[in-house]
Design a protein that fits this description.
heterotrimer; A mainly alpha; B alpha/beta; C mainly alpha; B: alpha/beta; nine-stranded mixed sheet; two-stranded antiparallel sheet; 16 helices; globular; C: mainly alpha; MetI-like fold; 13 helices
Chain lengths: 319, 416, 271
C-alpha cells in the first residue's frame, strides 16, 4: 500500500516514501518471481516429460483414432467409425473379457497366497528372512524369463508339470495349446511371479498391527479365525487396498506374459487389450483402430478407478 | 507428381551406369568407388538355408567389392510384424523379402520403390508379372515353391500299405494314415497344418471357391468349405498329433518326419533340403485331391525400400539374389526353393538328383495350382481369422459350419 | 500343545511354498545343461549327459554382454532421472504452496492411470517425428518422469516435520538447500523404494523397447530373449540357457541388495 498521495508534500515525505515503499516492493516482487522460478525449475523436469510423453500422446491417440491409418501410407479420416467397429467386434470384446478374466482369476489367487505366506512368515518361524528372499526372487525376474520358463514347465507334451500330474494319474491339460487353458496358464504364472511382492506388502502391513489388539482379543476368548477376520483383515485393509489398486493398474496393461507365453492364442483365447493394440497396429496395420481401443481402455480404467475410490471409503480402515 | 518418375529415371540411369561399369567420377550415385552397405532382411533362409544365403552373399560381395550386404534373418512367424513395424518406423532394410499376397498393400502405401532397367528376360515371365502393378515392376521374384506330400517308405512298408501315387484321393490318404498311426509307438500317419494356407487349397481340392468372382465377398462358407475344414481338423487327434502334442510349433512336423515317426507330411519343397538321409527312405508325390487336384504354389520376391539411400546398390543386390547363376546353382544344389529364372537348364541337374526320387512331382503339382486368395490391406487379418476358426474346429469348440460362418461374417466385413 | 501342530503346518506351508518358488529356476538350470531336452515326455531330473553346449550356441548367436549392458545402462539412467525429477516435483507438492497446486498435482496423479503400454502407438508416432526411433534416447525419454515416484516421495516428505526447514529458513537457507540438505536425506527410505521400482521397471520393460529398437545389436535383454523363442521353438535347452544367463546379473545384484529391495517395496504399502 502506497501512502504517497496522502502524505504532505515536502522533501521529507518524498524521501520517506522512497524509503518506505520501493524497498518493500522490490523485496516482495523479487522473491515472488524467484519463488515462481524455483517452483518452475523444480516442476519442469517432471512436468515436461509427463506432458510430452503422456498427455500429448493421449490427445494424439484420439486424433489417430478418428482416422484409418497403417502408419506407412497417408491417413484417411473416418470419424467415429473405428469406435463403432470396435464396439461390435468380437475380437475386441474378447480382449476386454480376457483382461477382466485375468484380473478376476489373478487377484484372489495372488492375494490369498500372499496372505497365507505373509501370515506364516509373521510368526517366529526359522529362516524367515531367507524364505522371504526366496519368495521375492520371481519379482525381480523379468517377465519374459518367467514366461519362457513357465511355458516350458507347462509344455503340454514334454513339460514337467504334466509329467508330475501323470504320476498321480491325472492327464494334464493342453495349457497353452488348449483355448480353455491358456488363460489359466497365464494366471498361474502371473500369480507365481507376483506372490512374493504381495507377501512383502502384506507382511509390512501385518507388522504394523499393534500386538495389544491380539492380546485383548485372546483374553476375550477369540480363536485364531476370529482374530483373522475381526482384527487382521480390517487392520490390513490399507495394504489390501494398495495391492488391489496396483493389481488393477497392472492387470489392465497385462502384456509381456501373454506375448511370450501364448501370443494371445490359441485362437485368440488369451488375447488381452494391450496385445490387441499391438497386433492391430504392428500386425494388421490398423493404428486408427488401435488408438480407438486405447481410448476405450482409458475410459474403462477411469470408470473402474472412480468405483474404487467410492468403494474405498466403505471398507478401507485408515487407523 | 512429376518428381517421382524423374527421380526414378535418375536412379535407373545411375543404376545402368553402375551396372555397366561406366560410372564417371562426376555423378555421385554412380561413383563405384564409394563403399556402401546395404541391408537385406529375409525369412526365406530361416531354418536351415542360412548358409546357402551366405554363399550367395559372399559371391555377390566378391563380384561387387564396394557393396557390403548386411543380412538379417527372421523366423517366418515374426517376419510380417517386424517388417510392418520397420515400415512404420522407416527403419526397414534397403532390400527385403515380400510375399505376393502383400505386394498390393505395400505398393499402395508407397513403401516399395518401382524398379527400372531390370533385365526381364532373365526371369520366368509369369512370376515376374505377378509383381507388377500399373505397368511397373515393384519386386523381383527370387524363388518359387509348391507343396507336396512327403512320405516315409519304411512306415508304409511296416503297415503294409502301398506307396501314395499321383492318383490318390483324400480317402486313400485317410485309409493309409489310419493304418500307419500307432500311438503306442508314437507314430503318426499324417501331418497337415490346420491353417489358412492348407484350407484354401483343400477347398479347391474339393471343388469349392474361397472368394466370389467379384472379390467382394467370400464363398468358402459352403458345403465344400465345411468338407475342407472337417478334412483338416478331423486329422488332429486321430492320425495327426494335436497342438497339445506339439503340432503348430514351427519345426515340430519336420522333426517328427526326420525322426521316422511320421508317415505322411504335407509341406513345402523348402523343407526337403533338411531331410537328406533322415528318415532313410522317403519320397514325394503330388498331394491327393478330393474331387480334383489342386496344389499350392508360392513365390517370394525381393523389394527395395522406397526410402533406401542406396537404391542402385540395393537393386544390384536384388537382381543378383534373384537372377544370378550363383544364386540359381546354390538353390538347386541345396534343394532350397527353386530359382525363378527363365533359364531352366539349371533344373536338369536338379531333376537328376537322387533324393527325393520323384522330383517330377514338384513340377507336376504346378499343373493344377490353387492361388492364394488376396484381398489387399486386410490380408494378414483374413489369414488369422481363417486359421483361428479352423483352430476352434480342431479343438472341437465349434462345428465347422459355425466356425466358417463366423469367419465369413468377419471377412465380409473387411471386404466392404 | 495345541500350538505345536499349527507351527508344523505353518513350517510345511512356507517350505513347500518356497520350493514351488525356486523349482522353476532350478528346472530351467537343469534343462539348460541337458542337450536335447524337450524331445521326450519323460523329463530327466538329473541330466544324463550334462553339457554346456546350449550356452556355447547361445553366446555364439547373441552378443550377450552387449545386450546386458544395453539393459543395464538404460535401467541406471532411467533410475537416476526418475529419482531427480520425482524428488524435485515432490518437494514442490509438499513444501511450496502456490495457487492451483492441487489441480497440478491432480493432473500428475491422473497420468498414473494411463500406462505407457496403452500409449505405444501415439508415442511411436511421436518418436518417429522426433527422429528418435531406434535410439536409446527414444527408449529412455518416456520413462524419465514418474507420477508414481512423485506421489511416493511427496507422501514421504509430508511426513517429515517442517521444523527443520523453518530453522533453516531463518538461517537464510533457500529452497535448494532445504531440499538437498534437509528434506532429501530424511526421505532416504522412500528414495530407496523408488530406486527399486524404477530400476526393476526399466530392466524388465518389454513392449516399448520391442517396438522402438529395430537393430538386433541394440536390443535389450527381455526383447532378445523373447526373440530366442521364435528361433529355437523346440530347442528348450537353448531357450532355458538364455533364461538362466539373463537371470544371473539380476540375481547377483539381488543377493547383495535383497534387504533394501524388500524394505523398499514394503514401504510402499504403508501410508
Amino acid at each position: 500500500m502506497t501512502t504517497v498521495g496522502n502524505s504532505k508534500p515536502g522533501i521529507l515525505s518524498v524521501t520517506n516514501a522512497r524509503k518506505l515503499n520501493p524497498a518493500p516492493i522490490r523485496r516482495k516482487a523479487a522473491p515472488r518471481l524467484r519463488y515462481a522460478l524455483t517452483v518452475g525449475l523444480f516442476l519442469l523436469p517432471s512436468a515436461l516429460p509427463l506432458l510430452f510423453f503422456t498427455i500429448v500422446p493421449m490427445v494424439s491417440a484420439f486424433w489417430i483414432s478418428l482416422n484409418q491409418w497403417n502408419l506407412v501410407g497417408p491417413m484417411k479420416w473416418v470419424g467415429l467409425d473405428n469406435y463403432a467397429r470396435l464396439v461390435t467386434d468380437p475380437g475386441t470384446q474378447g480382449a476386454f473379457l480376457h483382461t477382466v478374466y485375468y484380473i478376476v482369476g489373478y487377484l484372489p489367487l495372488v492375494y490369498s497366497g500372499g496372505l497365507a505366506i505373509a501370515l506364516a512368515l509373521n510368526t517366529r518361524i526359522k529362516g524367515r528372512s531367507m524364505l522371504r528372499g526366496l519368495y521375492f526372487l520371481p519379482v525381480v525376474t523379468s517377465w519374459i524369463v518367467v514366461a519362457l520358463v513357465w511355458r516350458w514347465l507347462l509344455n503340454p507334451s514334454t513339460g514337467i508339470v504334466n509329467w508330475l500330474l501323470g504320476l498321480i494319474g491325472i492327464a494334464g491339460p493342453g495349457w497353452w495349446t488348449d483355448p480353455a487353458w491358456s488363460m489359466p496358464a497365464i494366471i498361474l504364472a502371473s500369480a507365481w511371479k507376483d506372490l512374493g511382492f504381495v507377501m512383502v506388502i502384506l507382511l509390512a502391513g501385518l507388522q504394523a498391527i499393534p500386538e495389544e489388539l491380539y492380546e485383548a482379543a485372546t483374553v476375550d476368548g477369540a480363536g485364531p479365525w476370529r482374530r483373522l477376520f475381526s482384527i487382521t483383515l480390517p487392520m490390513l485393509s490399507p495394504s489390501t487396498f494398495f495391492v488391489i489398486v496396483l493389481s488393477l493398474i497392472n492387470g489392465f496393461q497385462v502384456f509381456d506374459q501373454v506375448y511370450a507365453m501364448t501370443g494371445g492364442g490359441p485362437n485368440n483365447s488369451s488375447q488381452v487389450v494391450v496385445q490387441q493394440i499391438y497386433d492391430l497396429t504392428f500386425r494388421y496395420g490398423k493404428a486408427g483402430e488401435a488408438s480407438a481401443l486405447s481410448w476405450l481402455l482409458f475410459l474403462f480404467i477411469l470408470v473402474i478407478t472412480l468405483i474404487q475410490v467410492r468403494g474405498q471409503k466403505k471398507w478401507v480402515n485408515y487407523a | 507428381m512429376n518428381k517421382k518418375p524423374l527421380a526414378a529415371l535418375g536412379i535407373a540411369l545411375a543404376a545402368i551406369l553402375a551396372t555397366t561399369g561406366c560410372g564417371s567420377a562426376g555423378s555421385p550415385e554412380a561413383s563405384s568407388n564409394e563403399k556402401v552397405t546395404i541391408r537385406y532382411s529375409n525369412f526365406t533362409s530361416n531354418g536351415g538355408n542360412e548358409k546357402n544365403l551366405d554363399t550367395i552373399v559372399q559371391a555377390f560381395q566378391k563380384a561387387n567389392p564396394n557393396i557390403t550386404v548386411q543380412v538379417t534373418t527372421l523366423p517366418y512367424k515374426d517376419y510380417a510384424t517386424a517388417l510392418q513395424t520397420d515400415l512404420a518406423a522407416g527403419t526397414q532394410a534397403d532390400t527385403f523379402d515380400i510375399e505376393y499376397a502383400n505386394l498390393r498393400s505395400y505398393v499402395s502405401n508407397g513403401a516399395v520403390a518401382p524398379l527400372e532397367g531390370v533385365d526381364s528376360s532373365k526371369y520366368k515371365q509369369s512370376l515376374l508379372q505377378s509383381y507388377q502393378s500399373d505397368g511397373k515392376q515393384y519386386a523381383l521374384p527370387s524363388s518359387f515353391s509348391d507343396v507336396v506330400l512327403y512320405y516315409n517308405k519304411a512306415l508304409f512298408d511296416a503297415a503294409k500299405v502301398a506307396y501314395p501315387t499321383s492318383s490318390w484321393t483324400w480317402a486313400d490318404e485317410t485309409a493309409a494314415a489310419k493304418k500307419i498311426t500307432d500311438s503306442a509307438a508314437g507314430v503318426f500317419g499324417d501331418f497337415q497344418n490346420v491353417s489358412f494356407y492348407e484350407f484354401y487349397k483343400a477347398l479347391a481340392q474339393t471343388g469349392g471357391k474361397f472368394l466370389n468372382d467379384d472379390g467382394k465377398s467370400v464363398a468358402f462358407n459352403s458345403p465344400q468349405g465345411i468338407k475342407a475344414a472337417e478334412w483338416l481338423a478331423g486329422k488332429s487327434g486321430t492320425t495327426m498329433p494335436t497342438p497339445a502334442q506339439g503340432a503348430g510349433t514351427p519345426d515340430f512336423d519336420t522333426k517328427l518326419f526326420k525322426d521316422g515317426k511320421l508317415g505322411m507330411l504335407h509341406s513345402g519343397i523348402w523343407v526337403a533340403s533338411s531331410f537328406a538321409d533322415s528318415p532313410k527312405n522317403w519320397d514325394i508325390v503330388v498331394e491327393p485331391g478330393d474331387t480334383q487336384k489342386a496344389s499350392a504354389e508360392f513365390s517370394n520376391a525381393i523389394a527395395i525400400a522406397a526410402n533406401s539411400k542406396n537404391k542402385a546398390a540395393a537393386q544390384k543386390w536384388a537382381e543378383y539374389m534373384t537372377s544370378s547363376d550363383v544364386m540359381a546353382q546354390t538353390r538347386i544344389s541345396a534343394g532350397w526353393e527353386l530359382p525363378a529364372t527363365s533359364d531352366e537348364s539349371f533344373l536338369k541337374p536338379y531333376l537328376a538328383k537322387d533324393k527325393p526320387a520323384n522330383r517330377k512331382a514338384i513340377f507336376d503339382a504346378l499343373d493344377h495350382v490353387a492361388l492364394t486368395p488376396v484381398i489387399g490391406d486386410n490380408q494378414q487379418k483374413m489369414v488369422d481369422i481363417i486359421t483361428n476358426a479352423l483352430g476352434e474346429v480342431e479343438a472341437k469348440r465349434s462345428t465347422a459350419s459355425d466356425a466358417l460362418k463366423g469367419a465369413a461374417d468377419q471377412i465380409n466385413a473387411l471386404l466392404k | 500343545m495345541r500350538k505345536f501342530p499349527r507351527l508344523i503346518a505353518l513350517n510345511i506351508l512356507v517350505v513347500v511354498g518356497a520350493a514351488v518358488m525356486v523349482f522353476p529356476f532350478l528346472w530351467a538350470l537343469v534343462t539348460s545343461i541337458s542337450p536335447g531336452a524337450g524331445l521326450s515326455a519323460t523329463p530327466q531330473l538329473v541330466p544324463e549327459n550334462p553339457s554346456l553346449s546350449a550356452y556355447a550356441e547361445l553366446l555364439q548367436r547373441l552378443p550377450f554382454v552387449q545386450i546386458v549392458l544395453n539393459s543395464l545402462i538404460l535401467a541406471v539412467l532411467t533410475t537416476v532421472f526418475q529419482l531427480a525429477t520425482s524428488s524435485l516435483a515432490a518437494y514442490v507438492f509438499s513444501r511450496m504452496p502456490f495457487k492451483g497446486r492441487n489441480a497440478v498435482f491432480a493432473v500428475y496423479l491422473a497420468t498414473m492411470m494411463v500406462p505407457l503400454q496403452v500409449l505405444v502407438v501415439p508415442l511411436f508416432v511421436e518418436m518417429k517425428s522426433l527422429g528418435l526411433i531406434n535410439t536409446y534416447l527414444g527408449v529412455l525419454l518416456p520413462g524419465i518422469a514418474s507420477a508414481f515416484g512423485v506421489f511416493l516421495l511427496r507422501q514421504a516428505m509430508n511426513s517429515v516435520p517442517t521444523d527443520l526447514d523453518q530453522a533453516a529458513t531463518l538461517d537464510g537457507a533457500g529452497h535448494f538447500r532445504i531440499f538437498g540438505l534437509i528434506v532429501l536425506p530424511l526421505v532416504r527410505p522412500a528414495l530407496a523404494t523408488l530406486t527399486v521400482f524404477a530400476f526393476l521397471n526399466s530392466w524388465n520393460s518389454f513392449l516399448w523397447p520391442l517396438i522402438i529398437l529395430r537393430t538386433p545389436g541394440m536390443k535389450t535383454l527381455p526383447v532378445a530373449l523373447a526373440g530366442l523363442q521364435g528361433q529355437y521353438t523346440t530347442q528348450w535347452d537353448i531357450v532355458m540357457a538364455g533364461s538362466v544367463v539373463s537371470v544371473l546379473p539380476m540375481l547377483a545384484l539381488y543377493i547383495f541388495t535383497q534387504k533394501y529391495i524388500i524394505q523398499g517395496v514394503a514401504g510402499t504399502g504403508l501410508k
